[in-house]
Structure formats: C-alpha cells, structure tokens
Amino acid sequence: MMGALNEKILAAVLAHEDTNLSPPATVKAIDAFEKKHNFRFPLSHREFLLQGNGGEVGYARLFGVGESDHMSLEWHVTEMRPELESMAQGPVMPFANDWGGSYFCYDLQKADSNGEYPVLFWNHEYSEEPEDLPLVWSDFAANFVEFLQKIIS
After folding, report:
1. What is the pLDDT of residue 1?
2. Where is the Knr4/Smi1-like domain (predicted)?
3. Average pLDDT for consecutive 10-residue bins of the chain (153 residues)?
4. Residues 104/96, Cβ–Cβ less than 8 Å
C-alpha cells in the first residue's frame, strides 16, 4: 500500500512507454544516502525508490541510491551539486536530469509540512553566461508526485 505516492500515479508511470526503472532500492541504501548527505527524501520519492531505484521515466532520468554508474545519485550529488548550488538562491538536491543535461532539483529551503520539496529546473542552456543567470532556475513542480505527472504527460 502506498502513502504519499499513490498507486494510480505509480501505475501511470509504470505504464508509460518511456519508463525503464532499475530494480527497487533497499531501505538500507536509502537510509545510508540520507545519513551521509544529511538529507531526508520526501516520502513520495522514498516510496518511489522502493519500487524502482531510478531509471528512465518520460523525458527524465531519475538517479538511484547505491548505484555505481551514470545513474548514481551519489555521483550527481558529489560532482554536480556544488556547481548547481553556486547558481542557486540556496541549497538544492539534484535527483534527476533530462537528456539534454539540465537538472531537476529539490529546493531544500521550502519543504512543506509533509516534508515534500518543490522541484526546480536548472536549464544548462543558461549556465554559461553571467547575464543569463536569472534564467537558469525555474519552478517546475510543487512536489515529487507532480514532477512525475509532468514528465509522463
């Protein structure tokens, strides 16, 4: 039984022609990532990882915990988070990207009462020139569930 990530949303993700998920993450791997990075996944994202540890969904690639390839959340957080945060208004957590190299990140300053974060979009097309900096970030979704709905619609 699902909580924050309802079964209808999960079924829509799984039925989408562009979904290719990795096997489920373990609670141990999720907990280890959270502890190492002093971060708590939104419940909906945590439930998603327990169904599929990242993978391709719609036009996005969601990163997994405990992975050792280009889909590794650890790699993207270690390698890309400092660059992303250097252009952000505050702390962010990258958790997915699109095929063009732009990132989807949680805005860690704005958790709601359920621990769900808004999703921001970092557009790499505007990341090179200082005068384009105001265009780099945009609001994408209110939370992880809305993010999933958008990337498959």
Report:
1. 43
2. 24-150
3. 74 92 96 96 96 95 86 93 94 96 96 94 84 86 96 93
4. yes
Integer Cα distance of 17 and 1 in angstroms: 24
Residue-level pLDDT at 37: 95
| d(C-alpha 10, C-alpha 51), whole Å | 9
Residue with tokens 């699902």: 2
Measured distance CA(133)–CA(126) in Å, rounded: 6
How far is 42 from 62, CA to CA, in rounded Å?
Answer: 14
Alpha carbon 42 to its chain's center: 10
Geometric angle at alpha carbon 44, from 43 and 47, rounded to 5°: 85
Helices (H), the chain: 7-15, 27-37, 43-49, 73-86, 133-136, 144-152
CA distance 63 to 53: 7
**7-152 CATH:** 3.40.1580.10
Q: b/e for 107-123, b at 16 or more Cβ within 10 A?
A: bbeeeeeeebbbbbbbb
